[in-house]
Amino acid sequence: MDIYNILLSRPHNKFYLDRYIKFINYCSKHNSEKSDKQLGYCENHHILPKAKDLFPEYKSFEQNPWNCVKLTTRQHFICHYFLYKCFGNSQCFAFLSMCKQKSKHQIERYNKINSK
């Protein structure tokens, strides 16, 4: 499946789309070379966002296993930042929701947005 051309089919910012694809490719290769223990906690990420205004037809990982990549929490945050900068709209909400979530290791949430 040519993910890049599918992503190009929606209005986008080309600079951030290229960075997103490059980052996804790097993470996929890097994470596959490490064990689950070395990576720690990981999350599944939809390469093609499942948002209703983007690619809801690729929502299922069972039907579209190529649309799934395993990412660390920080990598997942960075991917959503790139998606927000690339597509805006619903991706803005997804990114801001990630910013407001507090991990179980944090005592309080800071007003500064960062991936740590």
Measured distance between first and last alpha carbons: 33 Å
Largest sheet: 2 strands, antiparallel
Mean pLDDT: 84
Strand content: 5-15%
Evaluate the radius of gyration.
14 Å
Give a description of the structure.
By secondary structure, the protein is mainly alpha-helical. The chain contains five helices and two strands; from the N terminus they run αααββαα. The longest helix has 19 residues, at 14-32. It starts with a helix and ends in a 16-residue tail after the last helix.
Describe this protein with a few key phrases.
116 residues, mainly alpha, two-stranded antiparallel sheet
Write the layout of secondary structure elements.
Blueprint: H1 3-8, H2 14-32, H3 36-39, E1 42-46, E2 68-72, H4 73-87, H5 90-100
Summarize the structure.
The chain is mostly helical. Helices cover 47% and strands 9% of the residues.
